Queue: 2 jobs
Job 1
Amino acid sequence: MYSAQLLDHFEHPRNAGEIADADATAEIENPACGDVLRLTLKQSAGRITQVQFKAKGCVAAIACGSALTELVAGKTFDEAKNLRRGDVTAAVGGLPQASTHAAHLALEVLSAALSRLKP
């Protein structure tokens, strides 16, 4: 059902937690399933220098939050804005059709956090 990559992100989440003095914070809840993803970012010179997440939800939501942090760390704002659902899905080794909402949630919270950053 789940790929080895997805299970690894779920069992050993990367960058879990919250940045106390974050430059941007966003939290999004999926109203259909109740999954919640919170993202905190630090930036410097137009790059994301630190990123952490907190998640409450299904295995896929936690895994996508973890993968998202690895995808955006060190990226410019434009590079991060250009991430697509396929990028998140590939980072977790694929998602079952019933779990694609998790990649969408990850991109929604990223977009919300980026909108709060000042380039």
Note: The domain at 4-115 is CATH 3.90.1010.10 (Sufe protein. Chain: A).
Job 2
Amino acid sequence: MRFTSSVRTHVGLVRGNNEDSAFAGPHMLLVADGVGGHAAGEVASASVAHLLGAMSLLPKPASGESSTPDEDLPVVLREWVDRAHRLLVEGVAADPTRAGMATTLTAVLTDGHTFAMCHAGDSRAYVLRDGGLRQVSVDHTLVQALLDQGRITPAQARVHPYRSAVTRFVDGGDRPDADIVLLDLRPRDRLLLCSDGLTDFVDEGEIRSLLLDATPEEATDNLVRAALVAGGRDNVTCVVGDVLDGELMPWHRRPYFCRMEGAVTDLANLIDPAGHGHAA
């Protein structure tokens, strides 16, 4: 199995720059949102998205493409996230003004048989199956913690002054505490990965309706447009991927079927893997 997908991002109607990054390829979908209030959020999101996207295009994105045991794919994702974390550590060492830079990360990887998700932060992953929409990620936010504890109601959560306070992310400090889980996906399922620039302003009922009866390209266009109509007070990024029942894409063709959007498309935002600052 693999993905056919579309990705769209927009700076929004208020922000001066786009700190979101997205990658969509035949074997990986990813959204990263530079954490607001942290230095160089666009560098963090771009560097993490670029590294993980590049890893998914290598000849073997997982150990043994044709016969990877279920438990191996999460191990691969954990190794990739740890590698991204080390890259951010190197980026801060090369330029101390980046201290505090961080990004959310929501990524889904397949080896052709199983699917695994890595998630840290308040970007989200949804699955549309047989007309029903289900959130498969859990928000890592202060407000979600208050909800889980029964200290606030869902109505209060929607207007809480600290609803954007993220409690987990990928940064240049401690090792990321990301959720890495297997997903039950099957052909004809549709995945939506998005930054909070969508979900903070567009409710799930409207998101579901915009995902139905549309191509991935139409769905991403309509979702981003809905966020802008709702005020566009944040960067908004959407990746829509349909699960196809087919062979893995041959490794030499993978780059022709991938797409990057947002901060990751600016080479000035990428940390040099050698730790020498920017890539360009």
Note: Confidence is low (pLDDT under 50) at residues 62-70.
